[in-house]
Amino acid sequence: xxxxxxxxQAAVYQIYPRSFADSNGDGLGDIRGITSRVPYxxxxxxxxxxxxxxxxxxxxxGGYDVDDYRNVDPKLGTLEDFDELVDALHGAGIKLIxxxxxxxxxxxxxxxxxxxxxxxxxxxxxxxxxxxxKGPDGSEPPSDWESxxxxxxxxxxxxxxxxxxLFAPEQPDLNWDNREVRDDFLKTLRFWSDxxxxxxxxxxxxxxxxxxxxxxPSKAELGAEDENLNGEHPFWDRDEVHDIYSxxxxxxxxxxxxxxxxxxxxxxxxxxxxxxxxDGLGQAFNFDLLRADWNPGQFRSIITTNLTEAENSGASSxxxxxxxxxxxxxxxxxxxxxxxxxxTGIDWLLSGxxxxxxxxxxxxxxxxxxxxxxxxxxxxxxxYQGEELGLHEVADIADEARQDPTFFRxxxxxxxxxGCRVPLPWTAEGPSFGFGGQxxxxxxxxxxxxxxxxxQEEGEDSTLNLYRSALALRRELQTTEQLDWxxxxxxxxxxxxxxxxxxxxxxxxxxxxxxAGRVVVSSAPLADGKLPADTTAWVxxxx
Length: 543
Description:
Helix content: 25-40%
Number of helices: 15
């Protein structure tokens, strides 16, 4: 637990608190529910838990609209419950990474309520980004910018001014040029670090600093957030954001071991390294595999590029296939690629999960192979709750049951992210499949019964037991942060790690030969000693 480099090759398990485990039967997951499942996390074999927001919130954006950064949502528990969770995790040898949301508060935060009650130009308003409107009476927004969730990025207040929200209207953007804002977040980092939090996942890390000098550019002039190469976009990935993270690093280094951080930064690959700098956050998410098709050429290029980036920055790479914002990879791999840079699964969701037809069996087979490949890579592996059960995306959620703001702000364009946030099935029966004593806050499909933890624990070849075996072997086999590619057929990815450990993935349709040695884990049964299609195996050379 005292190793300062624990994060470099950690297996990190993301928990969406409201959908993990419900201890009091109100249909909403909570902190005590997570604590009750620490034995499960220990048996899974993860090194750390990343806890999505658990702060007081109206849930305008699933908890990413924060009312109070130094408290626990009373619907989820108390600070004492949080302390008990930290103790339970640490007692099991598991670290805790807390989500922090610095770009915006909620509109219920005491600062924003004070800002609305204060006059134009007041210190309270200077904590946020308020502007006069355009037009003779100021009735037009300061620019035609759109929020990430659709609709205008500006909302008008009762006194006629407008405030900026890059996300939902309930998420007003903070003004990071304000020293009070910077100091308050340093206080928040120390508050949670003092309570035993081992690291932080930084939400929208590339959006904090902004240049809103008039005249503001039009929407057409902005460009995409991950195409900014010069640090001069008005609000995405500006160079001065790293001054903030340099201050954060000083706080992290006050602790022993130093607190860690990982940036969620949707930036061009050439600009990712600054977020992962040892003088900044230390690590940054690489979402490239998450966006890749089931294609060996794409996988190899992404892996090679990101390992080189990590080596040059001094960080370790990060690998991820699923999280709380995207269609689960077991589903993506069962659908034809969307093409044109469009995320796979969006059209399928819009159809209610009917078009194109999902090949669920193939999707799960490929997801198992992809996850086993990922766990063989040097660097940190980020897992999302439920992927160890092979869960698919839930597509057929009734409109009246949906919660994601993207569904309401982009009707007919996006369904939203509720389908990957449906509460987990722990048992084959019960009103919420063991999630809690009553029905869950998002409806669970009947097919969850066959995917429940208690069912998979009895299945030797289940996805859950595959993850358990792979994570245990990963700890045993993990060495330096390098790999060597082995010349192979175009449809095969074969690399070795030091110590004679091979990972082989067959992206093709015909079985292929494996290297000499002992197969210690395989994502699907071998075919007469050969590696079948859509399968990964680890082979250890015999001494």
